[in-house]
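testing teh design pipeline on a random one, pls ignore if ur not involved
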Protein backbone atom coordinates (compact mmCIF):
# COMPACT_ATOMS: atom_id res chain seq x y z
CA UNK A 1 0.00 0.00 0.00
CA UNK A 2 1.33 3.44 -1.00
CA UNK A 3 0.22 6.44 1.07
CA UNK A 4 0.54 9.59 -1.04
CA UNK A 5 0.55 13.34 -0.39
CA UNK A 6 -0.13 15.82 -3.21
CA UNK A 7 0.79 19.47 -3.74
CA UNK A 8 -0.30 20.83 -7.11
CA UNK A 9 -0.80 24.56 -6.40
CA UNK A 10 -3.98 24.56 -8.50
CA UNK A 11 -2.37 22.93 -11.54
CA UNK A 12 -4.71 21.72 -14.29
CA UNK A 13 -3.30 18.18 -14.15
CA UNK A 14 -4.17 17.62 -10.49
CA UNK A 15 -7.81 16.37 -10.83
CA UNK A 16 -6.87 13.80 -13.46
CA UNK A 17 -3.82 12.64 -11.48
CA UNK A 18 -5.89 12.42 -8.29
CA UNK A 19 -8.49 10.34 -10.10
CA UNK A 20 -5.94 7.94 -11.56
CA UNK A 21 -4.26 7.41 -8.18
CA UNK A 22 -7.43 6.96 -6.14
CA UNK A 23 -8.86 4.36 -8.50
CA UNK A 24 -6.00 2.02 -7.60
CA UNK A 25 -6.44 -0.33 -4.65
CA UNK A 26 -2.77 -0.14 -3.68
CA UNK A 27 -2.71 3.68 -3.36
CA UNK A 28 -4.25 5.96 -0.75
CA UNK A 29 -4.06 9.73 -1.18
CA UNK A 30 -3.82 10.84 2.43
CA UNK A 31 -4.04 14.57 1.77
CA UNK A 32 -4.04 17.20 -0.95
CA UNK A 33 -1.79 19.72 0.78
CA UNK A 34 -2.18 23.48 0.43
CA UNK A 35 1.51 24.21 -0.11
CA UNK A 36 4.98 22.84 0.53
CA UNK A 37 4.94 23.92 4.18
CA UNK A 38 1.73 21.96 4.69
CA UNK A 39 3.32 19.00 2.89
CA UNK A 40 6.37 19.00 5.18
CA UNK A 41 4.25 19.30 8.31
CA UNK A 42 2.11 16.36 7.21
CA UNK A 43 5.10 14.28 6.09
CA UNK A 44 6.63 14.65 9.56
CA UNK A 45 3.86 12.43 10.95
CA UNK A 46 5.55 9.48 9.25
CA UNK A 47 2.48 8.03 7.54
CA UNK A 48 3.24 8.78 3.87
CA UNK A 49 5.70 7.13 1.50
CA UNK A 50 5.35 9.29 -1.65
CA UNK A 51 4.80 12.99 -2.33
CA UNK A 52 3.52 14.12 -5.74
CA UNK A 53 4.43 17.79 -6.08
CA UNK A 54 4.19 20.38 -8.82
CA UNK A 55 7.76 21.21 -9.81
CA UNK A 56 6.85 24.91 -9.89
CA UNK A 57 5.44 24.88 -6.34
CA UNK A 58 6.87 27.74 -4.23
CA UNK A 59 9.18 26.46 -1.52
CA UNK A 60 10.23 23.26 -3.28
CA UNK A 61 13.93 23.83 -2.70
CA UNK A 62 16.91 21.80 -1.53
CA UNK A 63 15.96 22.20 2.15
CA UNK A 64 12.43 20.88 1.53
CA UNK A 65 13.73 17.95 -0.53
CA UNK A 66 16.23 17.09 2.21
CA UNK A 67 13.47 17.12 4.84
CA UNK A 68 11.35 14.76 2.74
CA UNK A 69 14.34 12.41 2.53
CA UNK A 70 14.71 12.51 6.30
CA UNK A 71 11.04 11.60 6.66
CA UNK A 72 11.61 8.77 4.12
CA UNK A 73 9.07 10.25 1.71
CA UNK A 74 9.89 9.71 -1.96
CA UNK A 75 9.41 12.82 -4.09
CA UNK A 76 7.81 12.71 -7.55
CA UNK A 77 7.83 16.14 -9.20
CA UNK A 78 5.44 16.92 -12.04
CA UNK A 79 5.92 19.76 -14.55
CA UNK A 80 3.67 21.07 -17.31
CA UNK A 81 6.71 21.77 -19.49
CA UNK A 82 9.81 20.08 -18.07
CA UNK A 83 12.37 22.03 -20.09
CA UNK A 84 16.13 22.08 -19.61
CA UNK A 85 16.08 25.08 -17.28
CA UNK A 86 13.48 23.50 -15.00
CA UNK A 87 15.36 20.20 -15.01
CA UNK A 88 18.57 21.96 -14.00
CA UNK A 89 16.81 23.80 -11.18
CA UNK A 90 15.18 20.57 -10.00
CA UNK A 91 18.53 18.79 -10.11
CA UNK A 92 20.17 21.47 -7.97
CA UNK A 93 17.37 21.05 -5.43
CA UNK A 94 17.96 17.29 -5.31
CA UNK A 95 14.83 16.23 -7.22
CA UNK A 96 15.59 12.91 -8.90
CA UNK A 97 12.17 12.17 -10.47
CA UNK A 98 10.67 14.83 -12.78
CA UNK A 99 7.76 13.80 -15.02
CA UNK A 100 5.66 15.60 -17.66
CA UNK A 101 2.10 16.44 -16.59
CA UNK A 102 0.56 14.82 -19.67
CA UNK A 103 2.02 11.36 -18.94
CA UNK A 104 -0.23 10.09 -16.14
CA UNK A 105 0.79 6.48 -16.78
CA UNK A 106 4.39 7.38 -15.90
CA UNK A 107 3.16 9.21 -12.81
CA UNK A 108 1.19 6.20 -11.56
CA UNK A 109 4.14 3.92 -12.29
CA UNK A 110 6.52 6.22 -10.40
CA UNK A 111 4.22 6.27 -7.38
CA UNK A 112 3.59 2.53 -7.27
CA UNK A 113 6.90 1.05 -8.50
CA UNK A 114 8.72 -0.45 -5.47
CA UNK A 115 12.03 -0.44 -7.37
CA UNK A 116 12.05 3.35 -7.19
CA UNK A 117 11.58 3.45 -3.44
CA UNK A 118 15.27 3.76 -2.70
CA UNK A 119 16.04 6.22 -5.47
CA UNK A 120 14.65 9.32 -3.81
CA UNK A 121 15.56 8.57 -0.19
CA UNK A 122 19.27 9.01 -0.68
CA UNK A 123 20.18 5.31 -0.90
CA UNK A 124 20.20 4.88 -4.67
CA UNK A 125 22.02 7.95 -5.95
CA UNK A 126 25.34 7.50 -4.15
CA UNK A 127 24.60 10.26 -1.65
CA UNK A 128 24.75 9.40 1.99
CA UNK A 129 23.83 11.25 5.13
CA UNK A 130 26.85 12.77 6.83
CA UNK A 131 28.23 10.44 9.49
CA UNK A 132 28.65 11.55 13.05
CA UNK A 133 32.14 11.32 14.44
CA UNK A 134 30.60 10.86 17.89
CA UNK A 135 29.44 7.34 18.77
CA UNK A 136 26.05 6.72 20.37
CA UNK A 137 25.94 7.33 24.11
CA UNK A 138 24.40 4.48 26.07
CA UNK A 139 21.99 5.76 28.70
CA UNK A 140 22.77 9.44 28.11
CA UNK A 141 22.55 12.09 30.80
CA UNK A 142 19.52 14.40 30.75
CA UNK A 143 20.38 17.98 31.70
CA UNK A 144 17.63 20.61 32.12
CA UNK A 145 18.76 24.24 31.87
CA UNK A 146 16.36 26.58 33.66
CA UNK A 147 16.40 30.23 34.63
CA UNK A 148 13.92 32.84 35.86
CA UNK A 149 12.35 35.51 33.67
CA UNK A 150 14.38 38.39 32.36
CA UNK A 151 16.69 36.76 29.78
CA UNK A 152 19.51 35.68 32.13
CA UNK A 153 21.25 33.86 29.26
CA UNK A 154 19.66 30.44 29.69
CA UNK A 155 19.64 29.62 25.95
CA UNK A 156 23.25 30.71 25.47
CA UNK A 157 24.35 28.47 28.34
CA UNK A 158 22.30 25.52 27.04
CA UNK A 159 23.66 25.86 23.49
CA UNK A 160 27.26 26.18 24.71
CA UNK A 161 26.95 23.20 27.08
CA UNK A 162 25.62 21.05 24.25
CA UNK A 163 28.39 22.21 21.93
CA UNK A 164 31.06 21.46 24.57
CA UNK A 165 29.73 17.92 25.04
CA UNK A 166 29.69 17.33 21.28
CA UNK A 167 33.23 18.68 20.99
CA UNK A 168 34.27 16.02 23.51
CA UNK A 169 33.10 13.32 21.11
CA UNK A 170 29.85 12.80 23.03
CA UNK A 171 26.77 12.60 20.88
CA UNK A 172 24.43 15.31 22.12
CA UNK A 173 20.84 16.31 21.40
CA UNK A 174 19.82 19.88 22.23
CA UNK A 175 16.05 20.22 22.71
CA UNK A 176 14.37 23.63 22.56
CA UNK A 177 11.42 23.22 24.94
CA UNK A 178 10.62 26.86 25.70
CA UNK A 179 6.82 27.16 25.45
CA UNK A 180 7.06 30.93 25.12
CA UNK A 181 9.07 30.79 21.90
CA UNK A 182 12.57 29.35 21.88
CA UNK A 183 15.69 30.89 20.36
CA UNK A 184 17.97 27.88 19.85
CA UNK A 185 17.39 27.75 16.08
CA UNK A 186 18.10 31.48 15.77
CA UNK A 187 21.30 31.24 17.78
CA UNK A 188 22.62 28.37 15.67
CA UNK A 189 21.52 29.77 12.32
CA UNK A 190 19.01 27.00 11.64
CA UNK A 191 16.62 28.31 8.98
CA UNK A 192 14.38 25.26 8.52
CA UNK A 193 10.72 26.22 8.74
CA UNK A 194 9.88 22.84 10.26
CA UNK A 195 9.67 22.56 14.04
CA UNK A 196 11.43 19.46 15.30
CA UNK A 197 9.46 19.66 18.53
CA UNK A 198 6.07 19.66 16.78
CA UNK A 199 7.17 16.88 14.42
CA UNK A 200 8.33 14.80 17.39
CA UNK A 201 4.98 15.34 19.13
CA UNK A 202 3.12 14.06 16.06
CA UNK A 203 5.36 11.02 15.73
CA UNK A 204 5.01 10.26 19.42
CA UNK A 205 1.23 10.37 19.07
CA UNK A 206 1.49 7.96 16.13
CA UNK A 207 3.80 5.64 18.07
CA UNK A 208 6.66 5.94 15.55
CA UNK A 209 9.01 8.44 17.20
CA UNK A 210 11.65 5.89 18.15
CA UNK A 211 12.01 4.65 14.55
CA UNK A 212 11.85 8.09 12.95
CA UNK A 213 13.69 10.14 15.55
CA UNK A 214 16.47 11.04 13.12
CA UNK A 215 13.93 12.92 11.01
CA UNK A 216 13.05 15.43 13.74
CA UNK A 217 16.66 16.43 14.44
CA UNK A 218 18.79 18.98 12.64
CA UNK A 219 22.50 18.14 12.53
CA UNK A 220 24.48 21.32 13.20
CA UNK A 221 27.91 19.82 13.74
CA UNK A 222 29.80 16.60 14.44
CA UNK A 223 27.88 14.87 17.20
CA UNK A 224 25.53 17.80 17.83
CA UNK A 225 21.86 17.57 16.85
CA UNK A 226 19.07 20.03 17.55
CA UNK A 227 15.34 19.50 18.00
CA UNK A 228 14.14 22.97 17.09
CA UNK A 229 11.41 24.64 19.13
CA UNK A 230 8.02 26.17 18.49
CA UNK A 231 7.75 28.35 15.38
CA UNK A 232 5.26 30.57 17.23
CA UNK A 233 4.56 30.84 20.96
CA UNK A 234 0.84 30.15 20.44
CA UNK A 235 1.51 26.56 19.29
CA UNK A 236 2.50 25.25 22.73
CA UNK A 237 -0.87 23.48 23.02
CA UNK A 238 0.17 21.02 20.28
CA UNK A 239 2.76 19.33 22.52
CA UNK A 240 1.35 17.12 25.27
CA UNK A 241 3.42 16.24 28.31
CA UNK A 242 3.34 12.51 27.51
CA UNK A 243 4.67 13.12 23.99
CA UNK A 244 7.41 15.38 25.32
CA UNK A 245 8.43 12.85 27.96
CA UNK A 246 8.63 10.18 25.25
CA UNK A 247 10.86 12.50 23.21
CA UNK A 248 13.26 12.85 26.14
CA UNK A 249 13.27 9.08 26.65
CA UNK A 250 14.07 8.38 22.99
CA UNK A 251 16.78 11.05 22.90
CA UNK A 252 18.42 9.75 26.09
CA UNK A 253 18.62 6.34 24.42
CA UNK A 254 21.44 7.47 22.18
CA UNK A 255 22.86 10.77 23.40
CA UNK A 256 23.38 13.21 26.19
CA UNK A 257 20.36 15.51 26.19
CA UNK A 258 20.42 19.23 27.03
CA UNK A 259 16.97 20.81 27.35
CA UNK A 260 16.44 24.57 27.13
CA UNK A 261 13.29 25.08 29.21
CA UNK A 262 10.89 27.95 29.75
CA UNK A 263 11.10 30.35 32.70
CA UNK A 264 7.71 29.78 34.35
CA UNK A 265 7.15 27.04 36.92
CA UNK A 266 3.46 27.75 37.36
CA UNK A 267 1.18 24.71 37.12
CA UNK A 268 -2.16 24.95 35.31
CA UNK A 269 -4.71 23.41 37.63
CA UNK A 270 -7.46 23.47 35.01
CA UNK A 271 -5.57 21.46 32.42
CA UNK A 272 -6.80 18.14 33.83
CA UNK A 273 -10.43 19.17 33.28
CA UNK A 274 -10.11 20.96 29.95
CA UNK A 275 -8.10 18.22 28.23
CA UNK A 276 -5.72 20.88 26.92
CA UNK A 277 -2.01 20.59 27.79
CA UNK A 278 -0.68 22.98 30.43
CA UNK A 279 1.56 25.63 28.94
CA UNK A 280 4.44 24.95 31.31
CA UNK A 281 4.10 21.15 31.14
CA UNK A 282 7.27 20.76 29.06
CA UNK A 283 9.31 22.78 31.55
CA UNK A 284 7.96 20.86 34.54
CA UNK A 285 8.44 17.50 32.81
CA UNK A 286 12.03 18.31 31.89
CA UNK A 287 12.88 19.34 35.46
CA UNK A 288 11.19 16.24 36.85
CA UNK A 289 12.99 13.86 34.49
CA UNK A 290 16.39 15.55 34.55
CA UNK A 291 19.46 13.82 35.93
CA UNK A 292 20.97 17.25 36.56
CA UNK A 293 19.44 20.73 36.74
CA UNK A 294 21.41 23.83 35.79
CA UNK A 295 19.97 27.13 37.06
CA UNK A 296 21.07 30.28 35.23
CA UNK A 297 20.72 33.74 36.78
CA UNK A 298 22.02 37.16 35.88
CA UNK A 299 24.64 38.75 38.13
CA UNK A 300 23.03 42.20 38.38
CA UNK A 301 20.79 43.22 41.33
CA UNK A 302 17.54 42.54 39.49
CA UNK A 303 18.83 39.24 38.13
CA UNK A 304 20.03 38.04 41.55
CA UNK A 305 16.70 38.94 43.13
CA UNK A 306 14.90 36.91 40.49
CA UNK A 307 17.39 34.09 40.92
CA UNK A 308 16.75 33.96 44.68
CA UNK A 309 12.98 33.82 44.17
CA UNK A 310 13.40 31.23 41.43
CA UNK A 311 15.52 29.00 43.65
CA UNK A 312 12.75 29.04 46.27
CA UNK A 313 10.14 28.11 43.64
CA UNK A 314 12.40 25.39 42.30
CA UNK A 315 12.98 23.97 45.78
CA UNK A 316 9.22 23.65 46.26
CA UNK A 317 9.05 21.80 42.95
CA UNK A 318 12.06 19.44 43.03
CA UNK A 319 12.63 19.18 46.77
CA UNK A 320 16.14 19.00 48.21
CA UNK A 321 17.86 18.03 44.95
CA UNK A 322 21.29 19.58 44.54
CA UNK A 323 21.42 22.17 41.77
CA UNK A 324 24.18 23.48 39.56
CA UNK A 325 23.96 27.28 39.61
CA UNK A 326 25.52 29.49 36.94
CA UNK A 327 25.68 33.22 37.75
CA UNK A 328 25.90 34.72 34.28
CA UNK A 329 27.46 37.99 33.10
CA UNK A 330 29.61 38.34 36.20
CA UNK A 331 31.80 41.45 36.29
CA UNK A 332 33.84 43.35 38.85
CA UNK A 333 31.90 46.58 38.37
CA UNK A 334 28.88 45.17 40.21
CA UNK A 335 30.56 45.90 43.51
CA UNK A 336 30.31 42.62 45.42
CA UNK A 337 32.55 39.61 45.63
CA UNK A 338 31.92 36.08 44.42
CA UNK A 339 31.93 34.97 48.06
CA UNK A 340 29.04 37.30 48.85
CA UNK A 341 27.03 36.07 45.89
CA UNK A 342 27.81 32.46 46.82
CA UNK A 343 26.55 33.07 50.36
CA UNK A 344 23.26 34.41 48.98
CA UNK A 345 22.78 31.49 46.57
CA UNK A 346 23.62 28.83 49.14
CA UNK A 347 21.09 30.36 51.50
CA UNK A 348 18.26 29.52 49.09
CA UNK A 349 19.25 26.16 47.60
CA UNK A 350 21.33 23.05 48.04
CA UNK A 351 24.13 23.73 45.60
CA UNK A 352 26.00 20.94 43.83
CA UNK A 353 28.30 23.42 42.12
CA UNK A 354 28.42 27.19 41.67
CA UNK A 355 29.92 28.85 38.60
CA UNK A 356 30.51 32.47 37.67
CA UNK A 357 30.30 33.03 33.92
CA UNK A 358 32.09 36.17 32.73
CA UNK A 359 30.34 38.93 30.82
CA UNK A 360 31.86 38.29 27.40
CA UNK A 361 29.40 40.25 25.30
CA UNK A 362 31.74 40.57 22.33
CA UNK A 363 32.17 36.79 21.99
CA UNK A 364 28.42 36.18 22.33
CA UNK A 365 27.65 38.83 19.71
CA UNK A 366 30.11 37.31 17.24
CA UNK A 367 28.58 33.90 17.74
CA UNK A 368 25.04 35.20 17.28
CA UNK A 369 25.88 37.09 14.09
CA UNK A 370 27.65 34.04 12.67
CA UNK A 371 24.90 31.62 13.74
CA UNK A 372 27.44 29.47 15.56
CA UNK A 373 28.10 28.26 19.07
CA UNK A 374 30.85 29.75 21.24
CA UNK A 375 32.78 26.51 20.80
CA UNK A 376 32.94 27.03 17.04
CA UNK A 377 34.09 30.63 17.57
CA UNK A 378 37.28 29.47 19.28
CA UNK A 379 38.72 29.80 22.75
CA UNK A 380 37.46 32.45 25.16
CA UNK A 381 36.79 33.17 28.83
CA UNK A 382 33.08 32.35 28.62
CA UNK A 383 33.69 29.11 26.76
CA UNK A 384 36.26 28.01 29.36
CA UNK A 385 33.84 28.79 32.19
CA UNK A 386 31.07 26.75 30.54
CA UNK A 387 33.53 23.88 30.07
CA UNK A 388 34.09 23.91 33.84
CA UNK A 389 30.31 23.84 34.28
CA UNK A 390 30.06 20.81 31.98
CA UNK A 391 32.86 19.12 33.96
CA UNK A 392 30.70 19.42 37.09
CA UNK A 393 27.39 18.46 35.46
CA UNK A 394 28.61 15.58 33.25
CA UNK A 395 31.92 14.56 34.84
CA UNK A 396 32.21 11.40 32.74
CA UNK A 397 32.56 13.57 29.63
CA UNK A 398 36.10 14.42 30.72
CA UNK A 399 37.15 10.79 30.29
CA UNK A 400 38.39 9.28 27.04
CA UNK A 401 35.59 8.80 24.50
CA UNK A 402 33.90 5.45 24.51
CA UNK A 403 34.41 3.08 21.60
CA UNK A 404 31.70 2.95 18.98
CA UNK A 405 29.33 0.05 19.60
CA UNK A 406 25.78 -1.10 19.36
CA UNK A 407 23.12 1.00 21.08
CA UNK A 408 22.17 -0.33 24.46
CA UNK A 409 18.76 -0.38 26.10
CA UNK A 410 17.42 3.15 25.81
CA UNK A 411 16.74 5.74 28.44
CA UNK A 412 16.70 3.45 31.45
CA UNK A 413 16.88 6.27 33.98
CA UNK A 414 14.13 8.25 32.29
CA UNK A 415 11.89 5.19 32.13
CA UNK A 416 12.54 4.39 35.78
CA UNK A 417 11.56 7.90 36.78
CA UNK A 418 8.45 7.75 34.57
CA UNK A 419 7.43 4.43 36.14
CA UNK A 420 8.03 5.80 39.63
CA UNK A 421 5.87 8.83 38.90
CA UNK A 422 3.10 6.59 37.54
CA UNK A 423 3.16 4.48 40.71
CA UNK A 424 3.02 7.57 42.92
CA UNK A 425 -0.03 8.82 41.03
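output:
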Amino acid sequence: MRCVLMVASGAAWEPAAFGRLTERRDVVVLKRCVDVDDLLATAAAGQAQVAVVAAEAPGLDAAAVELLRRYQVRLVAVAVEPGDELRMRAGRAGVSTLLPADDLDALVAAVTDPDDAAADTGSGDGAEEPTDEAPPVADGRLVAVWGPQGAPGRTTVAVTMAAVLAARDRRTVLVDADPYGGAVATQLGVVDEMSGLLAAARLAAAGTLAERFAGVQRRVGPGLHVVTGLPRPDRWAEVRATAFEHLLEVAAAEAHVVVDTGFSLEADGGADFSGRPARNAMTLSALDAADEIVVVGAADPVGLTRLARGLVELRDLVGARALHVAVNRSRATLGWSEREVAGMVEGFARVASLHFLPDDRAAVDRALVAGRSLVEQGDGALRRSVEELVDAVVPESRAAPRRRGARLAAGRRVRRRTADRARRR
